[in-house]
Amino acid sequence: MRAIYLFKRDLRIRDNRGICEASRNFKELVPIFIFDPKIIEELKAQGERLYYVYRAVEELLKSIRLYCFYEDTESAIRKAIKVAKPKALYTTTSYSWSGLQRQEVIRKVCKEEGVEFVEFFENFLVKPEKVPLRKVYTPFYKEWIKDLYLETCEVQSFEVPALELPTLEDIKKELPIKPFGAFDPSECEKRLESFNFESYERLRNYPALDGTSKLSPCIRFGILSLRHIYKKAEGRSEQFIKELAWREFWYHIALHYPEVRNLEFQEKRRSIRWENRENFIEAFFEAKTGYPFVDAGILQLKTEKWLHNRMRMVLASFLTKVLLVDWRIGEAFFKEHLLDYDEIVNAGNWQWSASVGADPKPFRLFNPILQAQRYDPECKYIKRYLPELSSYPCEELLDPLRHRLTYHKPAVNYYERINMAKSLYRNF
Ligand SMILES: Cc1cc2nc3c(=O)[nH]c(=O)nc-3n(C[C@H](O)[C@H](O)[C@H](O)COP(=O)(O)OP(=O)(O)OC[C@H]3O[C@@H](n4cnc5c(N)ncnc54)[C@H](O)[C@@H]3O)c2cc1C
Fold first, then answer.
1. Which residues line ligand 1 (CB under 6 A)?
2. Is residue 177 part of a domain?
3. Is the pTM of this model over 0.90?
4. What is the span of the domain harbouring residue 241?
5. Which residue of 93, 191, 343, 406 pairs with 119 in a disulfide if CB–CB is 3.0 to 4.6 A?
6. Are 236 and 112 contained in the same domain?
7. Distance, CA 250 to ligand 1 centroid (Å)?
8. Mean pLDDT, rounded, for 120-139
């Protein structure tokens, strides 16, 4: 008797509860991964992200035989069931909006084919539904930390039968991947081992420094177990653990308020009339806002497919509260570029930055000039992404309103626009 094991956002063997459970109950497993063209099409500008997943599958292949499909989920599952004739299909529980839709398709196919569908909770430290509803992060955290699920598991030995199913080798030529070197799944463990948790709190806000873990793609695709990460951070950085809780907070909110996928968490702010001026949107997308700190952030995002958290907040705040552009447009822009893009975390953070989300503070201010002066005082970050400005004195780059640079003219005057934003928000 055998079971299919469907990998999703859990691209690892070690401490993977789904495989642990499947291998405990079955001597034979048929591991599969599906590159679904519908999902790939939605993220079409993201060949690098697909490459990251492809590389993660290649890494898995070093320890197990794995069958790979490049077709829609429903037909791939039917094909796998037809050939493997399993008793059950094991996978991890989905919590993301699109993951839940996909899970329903898989469940339906299993039912129609008479295959038991078994799902296991994974990729969170606490089940999002376990914490009693909390709309604010701090009370959520206090509950969350009491309920951590930290028990690791051992995978039992299992056989993978040779079957007439496609492999990565068979499909790889068709995949629209774009090779990319900045992040690689094979480096996750090394990054975790070498990361200095002790200095995290002190350094994490300075985008020019390597002060954050850069584990977000490893977490997004389940390359590392969260329990494993937690144990490395435990006793070394409470702040880091709080960041892991932020991720789970957004899932908790999305579970109770699924409408936040498209709508503002704060109902009263659903009627804000965003200006959405084309020239401002274009200046932002093209990194030509005239604020070097902001432009450097946009360039980091576009070139590295990852962005420092401080800069994510600065950019999101600038787009929404200074350029008065709808947060959904920014959310889609990040979706197009981020390697660690997570629909729930991204939407939650965009709403938070735009002061329309789950946040008790009515209006958060991120003045791009003060932010630059505080977090990039020597302009190392600005000059890294805008080397053409390297000969300018730093103080001029930090404040483009006071100093006229031979650079893109500031698209707007921050102080005028923020007053407009304040009065716009005051009405809601
Ligand atoms: C507008 C905006 C959009 C964002 N979109 C995403 C996204 O699509 N995917 C994503 O993974 N993160 C997103 N974040 C959160 C955060 O910026 C990244 O997780 C972080 O920068 C990743 O870098 P790191 O791994 O070095 O983080 P570290 O500082 O080392 O933190 C460790 C881990 O904690 C989690 N984490 C940290 N900060 C947050 C946060 N604010 N919310 C949720 N989880 C957090 C991440 O899993 C991260 O890898 C967004 C933040 C903002 C402000």
1. 204, 212-216, 219-220, 240, 243-244, 246-247, 250, 309, 312-313, 316, 334, 338, 340-342, 345-346, 349-350, 353
2. no
3. yes
4. 124-151+188-256
5. 93
6. no
7. 11
8. 95
